[in-house]
Amino acid sequence: MTISAAVLGRPITHSKSPLLHRAAFRALGLDEAQYRSFDLGVDELDSFLASHRDQIGFSLTMPLKERLVELAHIHGWELDDTAGLTGVANTLVRRDTTTLVSNTDVQGIVRALEPSLGSRRRPAEASDRATVLGAGATAASALLACRELGMTTVEFLVRNPDRADHVLELGRGLGMSVSTAPLSLIAPSALVISTLPAEAVPELRWSPGRDGGVALDVAYASESSFLRAAETHGLTPIEGTMMLVEQAVAQSAMFVAAAGDRATSGNDPEDENLRSIIAEAMYRALDGQSASAHG
């Protein structure tokens, strides 16, 4: 089975995707598999994809996520629900007869949060309530993840409510109760997700009477003041590296399954054994890089 994949974006030098996917391929015994990175802007994406048809799949980061969905509509590629609903995508996979576009950030958030959210006591008055900082593309992914995690009410904390129209419309279409509030006070919630860059998170006030809950910072900075504050106020902190790895696990499983389809001996991208091997390899690679950086 031969796999050739890559991560695309601008800037791209900071991306941990090559580290993660190469580790997964090694763990699966795919020694000939390749995973590269390309610095690419929005206007270059269409021609790049057309000229690299030998690649079985791509991971996409900013600023390409919305453009990929636009191209899917133009070319008639298959959009799964995560990409179709959020309007953003981070994965393209070429299968035997179709090209699939997906947003694995949703899976990444769900799988990063599910173990802790299921085992932790939630605030009694807010057991199905979530708070999301920001209202951009990642906030849309967070909203879908909140629905999968059983949340029915989501409040978006924003500086400019006019920019929240997309997530509010999406939430209402999903049958959820959604609203906006100033980026200042976090009310009791079972789940609090920051989708903002670390430098854009202001000093926040936290409502008293908090009892349990989980907090995720999707930014994977080495230190998160948001998570430290959340922990101080009784929430279980989940670092963004968990979401980073879990969304990459979903991508890697899709790449492997697509390559298997071409070889007529495919793997199921939802196979938990496959995902377990990939996840273990990716976490080990990330831990090894962290240890080297601090060694």
Automatic annotation (TrEMBL):
- Oxidoreductase keyword on record: yes
Q: Which residues form the Shikimate dehydrogenase substrate binding N-terminal domain?
A: 7-92
Q: Name one GO cellular component term.
A: cytosol
Top class in the EC scheme: oxidoreductase
Query: Mind listing the UniProt keywords for this protein, alphabetically?
Result: Amino-acid biosynthesis, Aromatic amino acid biosynthesis, Oxidoreductase
According to its UniProt record, in which pathway does this protein act? Metabolic intermediate biosynthesis; chorismate biosynthesis; chorismate from D-erythrose 4-phosphate and phosphoenolpyruvate: step 4/7
Gene Ontology MF annotations: NADP binding; shikimate 3-dehydrogenase (NADP+) activity
Its Enzyme Commission number(s) read: 1.1.1.25
One biological-process term from Gene Ontology? chorismate biosynthetic process
Q: What is this protein called?
A: Shikimate dehydrogenase
Organism encoding this protein: Brevibacterium marinum
Task: Provide the taxonomic classification.
Answer: Bacteria, Bacillati, Actinomycetota, Actinomycetes, Micrococcales
